[in-house]
Design brief:
Rossmann fold, HAD-like_sf, Phosphoglycolate phosphatase, HAD_sf, HAD-SF_hydro_IIA
Length: about 230
């Protein structure tokens, strides 16, 4: 679409997580089930962390004998290609202390993939840790309203003049609705037209926030409206 942006205009869930911890004046270390994107954002605000990368334990006795780090005061779960049973044990163990903060970066169940293949999303990992820890994570990304609050406070955007464009009703469109933004569903991704129409016809109160203001077949179809 030939739009030029700089890196400061890209807001990731890792960045939002760092904003959240900074906002509550967090002190302590973070156990991360996630990638270097999270650790890099924490480095920017001088928060210590551990957990990124493959887990070194190979047997169950070794895993169960891991040393609990008393400095850990939060657990963050994001996308982790090295997700493992060992990491689940450690995360759940830390979260057994009700004073430990539990953060999930987002709730996406799946990523788009070709054919019949399934790529589990971050939400799948968050739910796994929620299940074994009997805790509920505070979600930073879509559809959490924290996204909108951060955009307004950190970047000064006007909700009434903001359009959320996305391909998922249960994350992108819900985010826009909860934050008071206008919403545009693009039908080239996850949610199809039949699903969007079903939400509009539904009498369920919880389905109302899934209904987009407008929809287009592809993102390119938006270009004529931006000509001026």
């Amino acid at each position: 679409m030939n739009y030029i942006i700089n890196k400061d205009e890209v807001i990731s869930t890792s960045y939002l997580t760092a904003c959240y911890l900074k906002g509550i004046n967090f002190e302590g270390k973070v156990y991360i089930v996630g990638s270097e994107g999270i650790s890099q954002e924490l480095d920017e605000i001088n928060i210590k962390h551990t957990g990124v990368g493959p887990d070194v334990f190979t047997t169950l006795p070794d895993i169960l004998n891991f040393v609990i780090d008393p400095e850990v005061r939060a657990v963050i779960v994001g996308m982790d290609k090295d997700f493992s049973y060992a990491k689940m044990i450690k995360a759940a163990t830390y979260l057994n202390n009700s004073e430990i903060i539990f953060i999930g970066t987002n709730t996406d169940e799946q990523f788009p993939a070709s054919g019949m293949k399934i790529l589990p999303g971050t939400g799948s990992l968050v739910r796994a840790i929620e299940c074994c820890s009997l805790r509920k994570a505070v979600i930073m990304g879509k559809p959490s309203s924290f996204v909108g609050k951060a955009l307004v406070s950190e970047h000064g955007i006007n909700p009434q003049r903001t359009l959320v464009i996305g391909d998922r009703c249960n994350t992108d469109i819900v985010l826009g609705t909860r934050c008071g933004f206008q919403t545009l569903l693009v039908l080239s991704g996850v949610t199809n037209l039949a699903e969007a129409q079903q939400y509009k016809k539904s009498s369920k109160e919880e389905d109302k926030e899934l209904v987009p203001d407008v929809y287009l077949k592809t993102l390119g179809d938006l270009m004529p409206f931006l000509a001026d």
